Amino acid sequence: MYAIVKTGGKQYKCIPGEKMTIDKIEGEAGNDIQLNDVLMTVDDNNKVEIGRPVIENASVSAVITKQTKGKKIVVFKSKRRKGYRKKTGHRQQLTEITVKEISL
Questions:
Q1: DSSP code at position 83
Q2: How many helices (H) and strands (E) does the chain have?
Q3: Contact by Cβ (8 Å): 11, 3
Q4: DSSP bridge pairs for 66
Q5: What's the pTM value of the predicted model, to 2 decimals?
Q6: pLDDT value at position 104?
Q7: Counting Cβ atoms within 10 Å, is residue 47 exposed (0-12), middle (13-18) or buried (19+)?
Q8: Is 69 exposed, middle or buried (0-12, 13-18, 19+ CB in 10 A)?
Q9: Can you tell me whether residue 70 is helix, strand or coil?
Q10: pLDDT in tens, 51-74
Q11: Separation of alpha carbons 97 and 33, rounded Å
């Protein structure tokens, strides 16, 4: 059984018992969260249910494992023959969660 959920403007495949890294959600390690924007579910018999746009009364419950940052991305800007160079970086804020169950 798995579900496709939308959070942070992205879609993720949730499987019970699996760890996932998603965009930052407010909360501390150990807090329970509910992801209510369930777009699609597939049960053990391969029965597919697709929402329009979301499935009513469906949710994914999970536990926040830790708050972390992603890998650093280097942003380098330059203009040729002008002596302009600028180097900055970015680290995305992430949340690691463990999916507990999918309720329909």
A1: T
A2: 0, 10
A3: no
A4: 96
A5: 0.84
A6: 84
A7: exposed
A8: exposed
A9: coil
A10: 999 999 999 999 999 999 999 999
A11: 9
Instruction: Give pLDDT, residue 40.
Output: 96
* Residue 62 structure tokens: 């999970």
Please state whether beta strands 38-42 and 2-7 pair in parallel, antiparallel, or not at all (unpaired): antiparallel
- Tokens 């942003």 locate to 75
Determine the average pLDDT of the residues in 76-86. Answer: 97
Residue keyed to tokens 């999970």: 62
What does the alpha-carbon distance between residue 70 and residue 8 come to, in Å, rounded to a whole number? 15
Selection from 98, 104, 75 nearest residue 14 by Cα: 98
The single-letter code of the amino acid at 55 is I
pLDDT exceeds cutoff 90 at 31:
yes
Fill in the DSSP letter of residue 44: T
Q: Residue 6's pLDDT band (boundaries 50, 70, 90)? A: very high
State the DSSP H helix or E strand holding residue 15, giving kind and residue range, or none if neither.
Answer: none
